Amino acid sequence: MDTLPCLGCKGLCCGPVPVTENELKKIKKKIKTMPVKIRSELENQKRYYGTCIFYDTNNDRCGIHSVRPEICRMFGYYKELVCFRKPELATKNMNTNDPKKHVGMLTIDFTWSYFK
Ligand code: SF4
Ligand code: SF4
Fold it and tell me: Which top-level group of life is the source organism from (predicted)?
Protein backbone atom coordinates (compact mmCIF):
# COMPACT_ATOMS: atom_id res chain seq x y z
CA MET A 1 0.00 0.00 0.00
CA ASP A 2 1.19 3.49 -0.84
CA THR A 3 2.06 5.47 2.25
CA LEU A 4 1.57 9.02 3.43
CA PRO A 5 4.54 11.42 3.37
CA CYS A 6 4.37 12.08 7.12
CA LEU A 7 8.04 12.74 7.80
CA GLY A 8 8.56 16.43 8.40
CA CYS A 9 4.93 17.23 9.25
CA LYS A 10 5.72 17.35 12.97
CA GLY A 11 2.23 16.30 14.00
CA LEU A 12 0.41 18.68 11.71
CA CYS A 13 -2.74 16.53 11.62
CA CYS A 14 -2.43 15.16 15.17
CA GLY A 15 -5.00 17.08 17.16
CA PRO A 16 -7.74 15.78 19.49
CA VAL A 17 -9.18 12.50 18.25
CA PRO A 18 -12.22 10.48 19.39
CA VAL A 19 -11.44 7.29 21.31
CA THR A 20 -13.39 4.21 22.32
CA GLU A 21 -13.30 2.51 25.72
CA ASN A 22 -11.27 -0.33 24.29
CA GLU A 23 -8.74 2.01 22.69
CA LEU A 24 -8.31 3.85 25.98
CA LYS A 25 -7.57 0.54 27.73
CA LYS A 26 -4.91 -0.36 25.20
CA ILE A 27 -3.28 3.06 25.39
CA LYS A 28 -3.29 2.93 29.18
CA LYS A 29 -1.59 -0.45 29.15
CA LYS A 30 1.03 0.80 26.72
CA ILE A 31 1.75 3.92 28.77
CA LYS A 32 2.01 1.95 32.02
CA THR A 33 4.46 -0.53 30.54
CA MET A 34 6.70 2.11 28.96
CA PRO A 35 10.12 2.52 30.56
CA VAL A 36 9.78 5.45 32.98
CA LYS A 37 12.48 7.47 31.22
CA ILE A 38 10.80 7.18 27.82
CA ARG A 39 7.37 7.88 29.25
CA SER A 40 8.55 10.94 31.10
CA GLU A 41 10.42 12.22 28.04
CA LEU A 42 7.28 11.79 25.92
CA GLU A 43 5.03 13.43 28.48
CA ASN A 44 7.19 16.48 28.97
CA GLN A 45 7.91 17.41 25.38
CA LYS A 46 6.89 20.88 24.24
CA ARG A 47 3.97 20.71 21.83
CA TYR A 48 1.79 23.22 20.13
CA TYR A 49 -1.41 23.93 22.00
CA GLY A 50 -3.92 21.44 20.58
CA THR A 51 -1.38 18.91 19.36
CA CYS A 52 -2.09 15.37 20.54
CA ILE A 53 -0.63 14.65 23.98
CA PHE A 54 1.07 11.55 22.57
CA TYR A 55 2.70 13.14 19.57
CA ASP A 56 6.46 12.57 19.80
CA THR A 57 7.79 15.89 18.54
CA ASN A 58 11.44 14.97 19.08
CA ASN A 59 11.19 11.95 16.79
CA ASP A 60 8.49 13.30 14.47
CA ARG A 61 6.10 10.38 14.93
CA CYS A 62 3.19 9.04 16.95
CA GLY A 63 4.44 8.19 20.45
CA ILE A 64 1.90 5.35 20.82
CA HIS A 65 1.91 4.12 17.23
CA SER A 66 1.07 0.44 17.90
CA VAL A 67 -2.03 1.36 19.94
CA ARG A 68 -3.14 4.56 18.22
CA PRO A 69 -6.91 5.02 17.85
CA GLU A 70 -8.64 3.72 14.75
CA ILE A 71 -9.36 7.21 13.48
CA CYS A 72 -5.59 7.83 13.34
CA ARG A 73 -5.09 4.64 11.32
CA MET A 74 -7.83 5.70 8.90
CA PHE A 75 -6.62 9.24 8.33
CA GLY A 76 -5.46 9.86 4.80
CA TYR A 77 -7.01 6.71 3.37
CA TYR A 78 -10.73 7.53 3.61
CA LYS A 79 -12.65 10.01 1.50
CA GLU A 80 -13.80 11.90 4.59
CA LEU A 81 -10.31 12.01 6.09
CA VAL A 82 -8.11 13.50 3.41
CA CYS A 83 -4.46 14.42 3.88
CA PHE A 84 -3.75 17.56 1.87
CA ARG A 85 -0.22 16.33 1.10
CA LYS A 86 -1.46 13.23 -0.69
CA PRO A 87 -5.20 13.51 -1.32
CA GLU A 88 -5.15 10.79 -3.98
CA LEU A 89 -4.71 8.17 -1.24
CA ALA A 90 -8.10 8.97 0.29
CA THR A 91 -10.16 6.47 -1.69
CA LYS A 92 -11.92 4.27 0.88
CA ASN A 93 -15.51 4.67 1.97
CA MET A 94 -16.42 4.79 5.64
CA ASN A 95 -18.69 2.09 6.98
CA THR A 96 -21.49 4.25 8.30
CA ASN A 97 -23.50 1.15 9.30
CA ASP A 98 -20.94 0.44 11.97
CA PRO A 99 -20.65 3.62 14.04
CA LYS A 100 -18.09 3.34 16.83
CA LYS A 101 -19.09 4.29 20.34
CA HIS A 102 -16.63 6.97 21.36
CA VAL A 103 -16.32 7.88 25.02
CA GLY A 104 -14.53 11.19 24.56
CA MET A 105 -11.66 13.01 22.93
CA LEU A 106 -8.03 12.14 23.48
CA THR A 107 -6.11 15.29 24.48
CA ILE A 108 -9.27 17.11 25.64
CA ASP A 109 -11.16 14.65 27.84
CA PHE A 110 -8.25 12.29 28.42
CA THR A 111 -4.93 13.90 29.26
CA TRP A 112 -1.72 12.39 30.63
CA SER A 113 -3.07 12.14 34.18
CA TYR A 114 -5.70 9.65 33.00
CA PHE A 115 -3.12 7.20 31.67
CA LYS A 116 -0.88 6.88 34.73
S1 SF4 B 1 -1.27 12.39 7.32
FE2 SF4 B 1 -0.68 14.09 5.98
S3 SF4 B 1 -0.74 15.97 7.26
FE4 SF4 B 1 -0.73 14.15 8.59
S5 SF4 B 1 1.43 13.86 9.14
FE6 SF4 B 1 0.96 12.54 7.36
S7 SF4 B 1 1.48 13.74 5.55
FE8 SF4 B 1 1.36 15.16 7.28
S1 SF4 C 1 -2.52 9.01 18.80
FE2 SF4 C 1 -0.73 9.23 17.52
S3 SF4 C 1 -1.47 9.32 15.41
FE4 SF4 C 1 -3.21 9.70 16.79
S5 SF4 C 1 -3.36 11.91 16.99
FE6 SF4 C 1 -2.09 11.17 18.68
S7 SF4 C 1 0.03 11.28 17.95
FE8 SF4 C 1 -1.33 11.41 16.16
Answer: Bacteria
Residue 84 burial (10 A CB sphere; 0-12, 13-18, 19+): exposed
d(C-alpha 55, C-alpha 33), whole Å: 18
Domain ranges of the chain: 17-110
Interatomic CA distance for residues 44 and 111, integer angstroms: 12
Is pLDDT of 1 > 70? Answer: no
Q: What is the mean pLDDT of the chain?
A: 95
pTM of the model: 0.92
Calpha distance 109→15 (Å, rounded):
13
User: How far is ligand 2, taken at its centre, from the CA of residue 62, in Å?
Assistant: 5
Query: What's CA 74's distance to the chain center, in Å?
Result: 10
